[in-house]
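Can't attach files on this board, so I'm pasting raw text. These are the components:
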Amino acid sequence: MSKFVISVMEGDGIGPEIVKEGIKVLEEVAKKFNHTFEYKYVDVGGCSIDKFGVPLTQETIDTILSTDALFFGSVGGPKWENLPHHLKPEAGLLGIRKALGAFANLRPAKVFNELVDASTLKREVIEGIDLIVVRELTGGIYFGEPRGFSQDRKKAFNTMVYTDEEVRRIAKLAFEIARQRRKKLTSVDKANVLEVSQFWRDIVIDVSKDYPDVELNHMYVDNAAMQLVRNPKQFDVIVTGNIFGDILSDEASMLTGSIGMLASASVGGKVGLFEPIHGSAPDIAGLGIANPIAQIESLAMLLKYGLKLDKEAKCVEDAVSLVLKMGYRTPDIATNSDKKVNTAQMGDLIAKAI
Amino acid sequence: MSKFVISVMEGDGIGPEIVKEGIKVLEEVAKKFNHTFEYKYVDVGGCSIDKFGVPLTQETIDTILSTDALFFGSVGGPKWENLPHHLKPEAGLLGIRKALGAFANLRPAKVFNELVDASTLKREVIEGIDLIVVRELTGGIYFGEPRGFSQDRKKAFNTMVYTDEEVRRIAKLAFEIARQRRKKLTSVDKANVLEVSQFWRDIVIDVSKDYPDVELNHMYVDNAAMQLVRNPKQFDVIVTGNIFGDILSDEASMLTGSIGMLASASVGGKVGLFEPIHGSAPDIAGLGIANPIAQIESLAMLLKYGLKLDKEAKCVEDAVSLVLKMGYRTPDIATNSDKKVNTAQMGDLIAKAI
Ligand SMILES: CC(C)[C@H](C(=O)O)[C@@H](O)C(=O)O
Ligand SMILES: CC(C)[C@H](C(=O)O)[C@@H](O)C(=O)O
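---
Top answer:
Structure tokens for the assembled complex are below.
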């Protein structure tokens, strides 16, 4: 019997509705495996702006740093879109990633057998996709200095920068992950044009010397965007920088047709952050019809990567599969022959399946 | 009867083979419409490195600037991959784009009816796609300064920078193109994170005031990468910066399944550059089996955008369609029931169809 402290960030839009279902499921896990979870609720993003005037406070950071993992809903919405840069909800998300030192964003793109037909790609192209994008998350053009506007406002600029250490640690982590999977790593860059990419590539090659059992190849980012469409099954682990990873991981998730179902883990720092890859979906917020599965999959990642509770993680994943197999679907993934349920019902079903 | 001077750059890999077929077709156009084309052959990329030691010479630039349009094959190959940055074949391509002032890269993604099934996407998702990516081509992170490495080689960086003028002229051009099409423009950026993107967005909005008849919307680049997979038909014209355009246009072309068939035009400068979007395909170079259609489609763009010969351009496009309708295919797009032809035969057929 172990005790864990989890910080919980419900956030904006559909965040609160789906995080609630995640906690419901976690409580079942607690019972079944004899754990105790204590929750510390925090605000980041729009909800923090509304309460404190800023998207992230130092107190929130401190609270999160005192816990074992951060279970994260979603941030953002039209209400806050016109605020200046450093006051946008997104600044809260970037700020907490940085504060936690969560330099690696793991984004698995997998296909749920039951949902293969929801993809716009042909069944034979996507059936069995099992790839993971390892995105560098606290460097690159997202954080590079200098950034801003020229004094006369006739020019604006950002800097894509990587240090040796930043590239080395994400490369190592990606090789470690590849080693536990199909042992194939694709590093994505734009080394034919950018010096920062050439630098990235050279260091990845250097790190590869410690992983002779992993097959490494390099791909330009434009080609990677094409290859994901042409033959996504060729990939096992993809490692890349912050903005390329942002773009490619979203593309990869959409290929599966299961975007409402996919989770991500941001790790490598003091405390891991676990969130759905979808956004806050303000258009359906409050209606009780949002699909909580991505949030519940994030919970599985939290258990696995955040608390090293592999058995418990697997149990959550199996529960989701079972409920899908039984034919239950929220509106976003339902076809006519499915049993339609709302957010809370889906949460109940999965909790019961634990 | 008019006379035009065309600079011709055959280039590396399959370049020479397919450019030859383009010229074959152009000579038929000359006969039919009573034009004279004079050719000036130049070298850029690997072939220039082999001859002159650098990927682009001032003499080549001067020659091209003295002509009416540049018909461009492809550059690059493993032979030159390990050269330093400024000596790579790609540096020649970037150099000539910049020297010509060709700031707008037009990349139509269309589906050839006869090839719908070559796509990895479902027929109903892609049938009738007709979108064009307008990519800024001489600015952004490709050319931004400062760039390079720190002295101790512990850090590398590039700068994504846009000036007011650069954004304004590409935005105008994109609105003009949208106006002649379905009047829908999507501007793609990452304004929730990057100042340079916020700047881009503000100027696009400013320019939009002169185009009240065109519907403008904004999309983050990660979302655009998803939406292209989810529902590509929602797009008419996409305008975006250099690197986002590089990634998204390649993704968009691959959706159609017709990547060996698509062309691009780089315009806005003194002389336009017209080239296939595919690369130099060193693996099949010299075998005489490469698909010349993208190169011939580039010819159609050259006639249309470079020489303002709309009728002639349409004639080339119709000839390609006709030959496809008759069932002729190069190996890359052939299925069992097709009539298989090689590069030269495909060129002959299209030339005859003129
Ligand atoms: C909201 C935004 C700042 C964020 C990012 O770009 O990192 C999001 O797109 C993501 O991928 O988590
Ligand atoms: C070869 C490379 C420099 C080039 C680019 O990135 O612009 C290519 O990918 C393209 O899109 O034309």
